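Weekly structure sync, notes
Attendees: PL (lead), two postdocs, one rotation student
Agenda item 3: pending single-chain targets
PL asked that the sequence for the first pending target be pasted directly into the notes so everyone works from the same version. It is reproduced below exactly as submitted, 157 residues in total.
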Amino acid sequence: MKVSKILELKGTTLFTMSPQDSLANAVMVMAEHDIGSIVVMAQGRLAGMLTFREVIRILAKRQSENRIGPTPPISSFTIAEVMNPQPTIVNPDMDVDTLRKLMVDSHERYLPVMEGELLMGVISFHDVAKAVLDKQSFENKMLKAYIRDWPQEDKAD
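Predicted structure, written out during the meeting:
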């Protein structure tokens, strides 16, 4: 199975924001839509990825700084200050097994899918798991149907 097939099954909904947008607004969008990532675009090009991992990191940093003195509110941060400016990028022709290994090795749960300069979508670890599960369920169903319809052998006397 290819990345393009997973994107096809997933659908085309994509959430993007600009690097200058407020981190607080990004968190609200992520919570409202129950998503774990936002694609950061600048001048029509991929500028980075904001995921819940980056949000947790900045919150942890603020918490540790809070012990020393007052820290700025989350609304004072821009996405550019928190995002991953160099996310791992995948190609739509990549095989799902290669993708799974890449996601595990890079510790990235959300990867932008690019075809040249064109953003095709974002693929998540959840999307991969669901696609693999659906494929296995389908294959399992087909095998059971095949076994159930197995032709009877003629008995020789």
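Discussion points:
- The longest helix spans residues 125-148.
- The chain has five helices and five strands.
Action: rotation student to compare against the earlier draft before next sync.
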